[in-house]
Task: structure prediction
Amino acid sequence: MAKKIPLRVCTGCGLSKPKKELIRVLRSPEDEIGIDITGKKNGRGAYICPSNDCLQKAISSKGLERSLKMSIPKDILDTLVKELIGLESSTK
Result:
């Protein structure tokens, strides 16, 4: 029997993709926001495609804030953008 692949929806573009292809943005129990590379950390997660376009869409549509159920300060959003760009360049 084939192993079931978990799918998640990108908060930016709205497409369902395998969980491994997406990046998890995490809100920890202490209300800290960051990128969870392992996908296993404790807290509430929102998934985005590993592209700056999807992150920008998720930010402008407030989809990321809705998914994490809290408002996100601009400095944290800037940090997320930098982390994502760093991840993008390391995977190419």
